[in-house]
Amino acid sequence: MTSTLRTGILGIGTRIPDNVLTNDDLARIVDTTDEWIVTRTGIRERRLLSPGELLADYGAEAARRALDNAGVPLSEVDLILACTYTPDRLCPSLACDIHHRLGPELGSAAAFDLNAACSGFLYGLHLADKLIATGTHRRILLIALENHSGILDFTDRSTCILFGDGASAVVLGPVEDGSDSGIYATCIGADGEGTAHIQLLHDGPMHPESPHARNDGQPYLRMNGREVFKYATRVFGVALDEVLALAGMSTDQIDFLIPHQANMRIIRAGAERIHIAPERVVMNIERYGNTASVSIPLGITDLLAEGRLKKGDTLALVAFGAGYTYGAAVVKW
Ligand SMILES: CC(C)(COP(=O)(O)OP(=O)(O)OC[C@H]1O[C@@H](n2cnc3c(N)ncnc32)[C@H](O)[C@@H]1OP(=O)(O)O)[C@@H](O)C(=O)NCCC(=O)NCCS
């Protein structure tokens, strides 16, 4: 199969919740302090969906903003790919719920969900890039979105302090002839040894033996933070080396590194290992916490809003997550 088309990010749109939960707010719910959370993670506050809000509405809003930004009409979209591990419900897919909200102008565009946890956006970008490069699809709405407030256990201080919610969408399509922008390389990988260390459990027939069972019918997250920390700091460099080799580039050609925002200490350790200056590393975990699949497009959104991202800049994107999974990409803006 020959790939003749380079995929570009034609537009981006983000919708984060208005509801802010600060570390001091959390200290009134669990035994923690602002100082502990800031020192161990870098997080000061996060945005969470309010009770009754649906992720599908956030996804549809982010998608409309991305289409506006790209100047692409809804009728041209031929695939909606929703990356999430926290959908409103398992079936039908969140992508189909978003399809419904966007309306009949979408026609029969395909729609499905992809779950690679915090690596979701990069798994989605990897897949979408191949679908566009081969001419299989022409306009893909790739939407990363998470609702942690629906799955966090607010009696478990080791996890409930970490996560935030939101939605961010990109419109992908072939770049114009002669343009040097677009996706230069992507890579994805997984390590099933990690399955024990981050789990979204659900009381019920699949896990009656779970030692953590709460028996209240609600899904809940459990994590072995120390193990995840070790994996994350290691895979960060592995994934970047892999994708830079595929792109035929070196670290000094990267204008901005946008890492998954899991923990400020993981990001700093990873950046030091690959010798990239701190001012070239995007960090917004302070304001949003870990938004899982959303954190990388949210980083792009922030860079654009701050006026720092210029046409022609080269971005390296890297993420890891439950599974374990990892992904990386090199994109010229
Ligand atoms: C979760 C994480 C912040 C915990 O930081 P840590 O330095 O590893 O802390 P530990 O788990 O070793 O816990 C140290 C102590 O702090 C306590 N603690 C845990 N959460 C706390 C909180 N919110 N407030 C106060 N104390 C807390 C623990 O109970 C433990 O106490 P003990 O020593 O008396 O047993 C860190 O391990 C981490 O970020 N891991 C990666 C998680 C991640 O990236 N997940 C997403 C992947 S996409």
Q: What average pLDDT do the residues reach?
A: 93
- SSE ordering: EEHHEHEHEHEHEEEEHEHHHEE
CATH class of the largest domain: Alpha Beta
Radius of gyration, in Å, reads 19 Å
Q: Helical content, roughly?
A: 25-40%
What's the short version?
The protein is of the alpha/beta class. Helices cover 31% and strands 24% of the residues. It has 2 domains: 7-174, 3-Layer(aba) Sandwich (Peroxisomal Thiolase, Chain A, domain 1), CATH 3.40.47.10; 182-332, Peroxisomal Thiolase, Chain A, domain 1 (3-Layer(aba) Sandwich).
Describe this structure in words.
The protein has 333 residues and is α/β, with parallel strands linked by helices. The chain folds into two domains: 7-174, Thiolase/Chalcone synthase (Peroxisomal Thiolase, Chain A, domain 1, 3-Layer(aba) Sandwich); 182-332, Thiolase/Chalcone synthase (Peroxisomal Thiolase, Chain A, domain 1). The chain is 31% helix and 24% strand. The strands form four sheets. A five-stranded mixed sheet has the order 1-7-6-4-5, sandwiched between helices. The chain is globular. It binds coenzyme A. Residues 32, 36-37, 40-41, 118, 157-158, 161, 198, 223, 225-226, 228-229, 232, 262-263, 290, 321 line the site of coenzyme A.
Helix/strand layout:
Elements: E1 7-15, E2 20-22, H1 23-27, H2 34-41, E3 45-47, H3 55-70, E4 79-83, H4 94-102, E5 110-114, H5 120-133, E6 140-146, H6 157-160, E7 166-174, E8 182-190, E9 198-202, E10 219-223, H7 225-247, E11 256-259, H8 264-273, H9 285-288, H10 295-305, E12 314-321, E13 325-332
Parallel strand pairs: 4-5, 4-6, 11-12
Antiparallel strand pairs: 1-7, 2-3, 6-7, 8-13, 9-10, 12-13
The site of coenzyme A (COA) has 20 residues, from helix 2, helix 6 and helix 7.
